[in-house]
Design a protein that fits this description.
Elements (H helix, E strand, L loop, with lengths): L1 E2 L2 E2 H32 L6 H18 L4 H22 L9 H23 L15 E3 L4 E3 H23 L1 H11 L1 H5 L5 H23 L9 H16 L4 H21 L7 H12 L10
Antiparallel strand pairs: 1-2, 3-4
Length: 294
């Protein structure tokens, strides 16, 4: 069976592979959306912290003998603590300034992190093996789906929608949203708003590190691995709507699939299709697909 001259199994295969890429986009854009939506900071360091999560996972395995599952927990926690330090020592002083200051500061943090690891390990990629329990592939009839890639999709969906539920449907999320809009009122109820903001930033960058550990067995780890990813992820956030949690999740998954299909029908455009969609969305709906129009 064919669709537009393309065998249906090939289309279904590309759909699943696109969903894997979309899972990474969703995870990274979710962290960006949490930080921008609740802290009003454009965190350009997100790609570098994605890289840092992957590098820490590799270092934990090579230097400390820790396995994948241990680093899947420890690397995001470590990066989250680093994020807390960054917020406490640098970001907290620029919240009331123009967005440009946050962008420049986090861009500088990116250059420092990438420069440190590039000077130590160079720019060549480092391999990172998937755990044995997730090795091999499953026959779906139309393709062999690598078990690790299936795990990436499942883990990403669980983390993304759990985060959305906590922020949008729980009392903690209500305090977070209220704290960014009217901090003095929330503090009157006994809530430590500065600490809440600090933990929010730490959680947002921990999501980036979690995505980095998930990506480590799929793409080779290098100090520059976050550069190409973060540009696409910013486009995803803009398309979904700056600060929209659900918009980032759904748009990330959708654009991964669109990118996958583009590789089948018009491979030359696969690297730019996301940005073409961004331009069209901004022309028709400047606030993004799920953003609130002012």
């Amino acid at each position: 069976m064919e669709l537009l001259g393309i065998p249906l199994p090939a289309l279904l295969s590309q759909l699943l592979l696109g969903l894997v890429n979309g899972s990474f986009y969703a995870m990274l854009s979710l962290g960006l959306a949490v930080i921008f939506g609740l802290l009003n900071v454009i965190n350009f360091a997100h790609g570098a912290l994605f890289m840092l999560g992957a590098m820490l996972a590799w270092m934990g395995g090579n230097y400390l003998g820790l396995n994948y599952w241990a680093m899947l927990i420890l690397a995001p926690v470590a990066v989250g603590i680093i994020g807390i330090v960054i917020e406490r020592t640098m970001l907290r002083w620029i919240y009331k300034l123009d967005h440009l200051y946050g962008l420049l500061l986090t861009f500088g943090i990116t250059l420092v992190l990438e420069g440190v690891f590039r000077s130590i390990y160079g720019v060549s990629g480092q391999p990172f093996d998937a755990p044995d329990v997730l090795s091999g592939a499953t026959n779906l009839g139309f393709m062999f789906m690598p078990n690790y890639r299936a795990w990436v999709v499942v883990a990403s969906l669980i983390v993304c929608f759990s985060t959305w539920f906590v922020i949008e449907k729980t009392k903690i999320g209500a305090y977070l949203r209220a704290g960014t809009e009217n901090p003095k009122l929330v503090e009157a109820f006994g809530v430590n708003v500065p600490l809440m903001i600090t933990l929010t930033y730490g959680f947002g960058v921990a999501l980036a590190a979690f995505a980095g550990v998930l990506a480590a067995p799929v793409i080779q780890i290098s100090p520059l691995m976050g550069q190409s990813m973060i540009i696409t992820v910013f486009a995803v956030v803009v398309i979904g709507g700056m600060g929209s949690i659900m918009g980032s999740i759904l748009t990330g998954l959708m654009l991964g699939i669109v990118e996958g299909f583009t590789k089948v029908f018009y491979p030359e455009a696969s690297a730019t299709v996301v940005f073409v969609i961004m331009v069209i969305v901004l022309l028709l709906r400047p606030a993004g697909l799920f953003g609130k129009q002012k």
